[in-house]
Design a protein that fits this description.
The protein is an alpha/beta fold. The protein has three domains: about 80 residues, LysM domain (Membrane-bound Lytic Murein Transglycosylase D, Chain A); about 180 residues, Rossmann fold, CATH 3.40.50.2300; about 130 residues, Rossmann fold, CATH 3.40.50.2300. The chain contains 17 helices and 18 strands. Helix 1 packs parallel to helix 8, helix 8 packs across helix 17 and helix 11 packs parallel to helix 12. The chain starts with a helix and ends with a strand.
């Protein structure tokens, strides 16, 4: 843990200069268009750059220095002074035309406030087809990414450290490829207004990593911005009504891909058998499998039994098996004992020289009682939200870099951190600050995770990308 934290510090310091320095080379006053409303009053959120003074800022915005003091009492500017990178409130001037005449202001292209006329991501994300012609390529010079993790307390878990470590490597690689970005770390336990300012000036917001953290942070997310939920599948439900982009693919998408895979593979001589447990009621996930099969119009037969029936159940397996084709199985249960027994029975069919194939989601690999050898014997076709091909050169390079920097082995959280930052920075680099409107037009296959979003009427979006993995009888695992 100490080695990883040291590596994070070293890499963060190395990234700071190339990623953030170019933003502040010229000490000009850039008139912000980002607005925030506090207690019924409107303010500009101004980012302080090197060599700027309160006097020069006040002249640029047409307000007095005292007005800036009064708007930022929490920062104690009278005594603490300004700091580069600081975000301060500037009262919105009632007569901006007069200000511009007295002091010309150089403006940068920034996202419009929700009440302005420019198309906002929230408008285009809901109805991409209707608003495609109005899309605005608002390209940032430096892509700012806010990362929301429990940085400032003792509850910083290994999961958070691994995830952030992967993001740092992605930032390094993106920087080396010519993308200018700045990582802004926000502590999820901090509710200060400064975090709101940082979120406002961010082009991408990633985190928090838990559903509870996402719920607690929703009221802090500025209008027109979207929060990327990077790890917790439970936040998929929130995408229906909230501005959330769900990065992990939910289990229902894996089931849907299982059924599509079956539909592609089924031949006239094949049989499709659904295995059900008579010892318990079908879980929600099992019912989802049955609904998907019925919706696809696939014809199937069922074998419903209890695990105490033992070898007697083999007669039913034999009676329903295809003689001239492949017998394809799907297990509609999450009970580990039943799933293990079902795999054992399918394995016996393979031993009897029947041509068999099992179709399952990645849940099947979480059962410790199921031997990997049996998954190969039954020709398992598995769908997965995450899968890493450690034979690929890109993955090998990542592993070597991670070991060198953090003196630890990268796990799935580190790989997912890399893929998540890589995807969302790339889509922002391609389409600009209004990238959420283009989610359904940009897909990417990462080291471990793929990203593919489909059109819909929800306020947010959920990743629908699923990987297909084949366990072959010659004991190979193939990513298709």
């Amino acid at each position: 843990m100490k080695a990883r934290l040291a590596g994070i510090l070293i890499l963060s310091l190395c990234l700071c200069a190339p990623l953030g320095a170019q933003e502040y080379e010229v000490p000009v006053i850039e008139h912000s268009k980002d607005k925030v409303r506090v207690d019924g009053k409107s303010f500009y959120a101004h980012v302080v750059t090197a060599k700027q003074t309160l006097w020069s800022i006040s002249k640029a915005y047409g307000v007095s220095v005292q007005d800036i003091y009064d708007a930022n009492r929490n920062l104690d500017l009278e005594h603490a002074g300004l700091k580069a990178g600081q975000v301060i409130f500037i009262p919105v001037s009632p007569a901006p035309a007069t200000v511009e005449a007295a002091q010309p202001v150089q403006e940068t292209i920034v996202p419009a406030a929700p009440d302005e006329t420019m198309t906002s991501p929230s408008d285009t994300l809901k109805n991409p087809a209707d608003s495609a012609a109005a899309f605005v390529y608002d390209m940032p010079e430096v892509i700012r990414v806010a990362v929301m993790l429990p940085f400032g307390n003792s509850r910083l878990s290994d999961t958070s450290v691994d995830f952030y470590s992967g993001m740092l490597l992605a930032a390094r690689d993106l920087g080396n490829s010519g993308v200018k970005l700045e990582l802004i770390t926000l502590d999820t336990e901090n509710t200060a207004l400064t975090d709101l300012f940082q979120m406002m000036r961010s082009d991408v917001i990633i985190g928090p990593i838990t559903d509870a953290g996402i719920e607690a942070s929703l009221n802090r997310c500025p209008g027109g911005k979207y929060m990327v939920s990077p790890l917790d599948p439970k936040t998929a439900e929130r995408t229906r009504t909230e501005r959330i982009i769900q990065a992990p693919t939910p289990s229902s998408s894996q089931n849907g891909e299982v059924v599509r895979w079956l539909a592609e593979d089924m031949q006239p001589a094949d049989s499709l058998i659904v295995l059900l447990s008579s010892d318990s009621q079908p879980s929600a996930n099992a019912r989802n499998i049955l609904d998907s099969l019925n919706a696809a119009g696939l014809r199937y037969r069922t074998i419903k039994y209890g695990i105490l029936e033992g070898l007697e159940i083999q007669n039913k397996f034999t009676a329903r098996a295809s003689v001239h084709g492949t017998t394809r199985y799907i297990i509609a249960s999450e009970d580990e004992s039943f799933v293990n027994d079902a795999v054992r029975n399918i394995n016996l069919m393979a031993y009897k020289k029947y041509d068999v194939a099992l179709y399952a989601s990645s849940k099947i690999r979480s059962y410790n009682t199921i031997e990997t050898e049996n998954l190969h014997n039954v020709n398992t076709h598995m769908t997965a939200a995450y899968y890493t091909d450690y034979t690929s050169e890109a993955v090998k390079s990542f592993v070597l870099a991670y070991r060198a920097l953090f003196e630890a082995e990268p796990n799935s959280f580190a790989l997912h951190g890399y893929d998540t930052l890589h995807y969302f920075v790339n889509i922002c680099a391609r389409y600009g600050r209004n990238w959420p409107a283009k989610l359904c037009e940009y897909s990417e296959s990462g080291l471990q995770t793929s990203f593919r979003f489909v059109p819909g009427t929800d306020t947010g979006k959920t990743n629908a990308a699923v990987r297909r993995v084949l366990f072959t009888p010659d004991y190979k695992v193939v990513l298709l």
